[in-house]
């Protein structure tokens, strides 16, 4: 799955956003809160797999229910990578959703998707 497809999955599955197209055909991410639709941003401007500010929106969304940590790691070739972890604790169990990637934003997105039950394989960066 390429990064753009992962961005769309994060927007829909993690953030809970839906695509809204205006009369001119421009597409936006929107959310419905209390029966009021609100436009968040254009579909093309939300890139959490590349932009740490967008990825941090994902972290803030999930931190409502999960503990988050991000740290340096090293792959089998001793290259520096990132590990993102969302942890859920229901008093009886601790469940970790952990993912590794070359960049912090991508690691955050992959772990966030895993925490909502979606696992993807990155084929293009």
Automatic annotation (TrEMBL):
- Which is one Pfam family of this protein? Phage_ABA_S
Question: What organism, scientifically named, is this protein from?
Answer: Anoxybacteroides rupiense
Looking at the record, the residues that make up the Phage ABA sandwich domain are 8-113
Taxonomic lineage? Bacteria, Bacillati, Bacillota, Bacilli, Bacillales
Q: Which SUPFAM superfamilies match?
A: Bacillus phage protein
- Name it: Phage ABA sandwich domain-containing protein
């Amino acid at each position: 799955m390429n990064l753009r497809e992962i961005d769309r999955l994060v927007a829909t599955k993690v953030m809970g956003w839906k695509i809204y197209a205006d009369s001119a055909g421009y597409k936006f991410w929107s959310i419905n809160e209390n029966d009021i639709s609100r436009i968040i941003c254009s579909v093309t401007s939300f890139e959490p797999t590349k932009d740490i500010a967008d990825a941090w929106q994902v972290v803030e969304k999930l931190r409502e229910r999960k503990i988050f940590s991000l740290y340096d790691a090293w792959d089998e070739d001793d290259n520096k990578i990132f590990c993102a972890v969302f942890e859920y604790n229901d008093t009886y169990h601790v469940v970790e959703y952990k993912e590794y990637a070359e960049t912090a934003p991508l690691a955050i997105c992959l772990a966030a998707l895993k925490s909502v039950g979606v696992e993807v394989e990155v084929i293009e960066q």
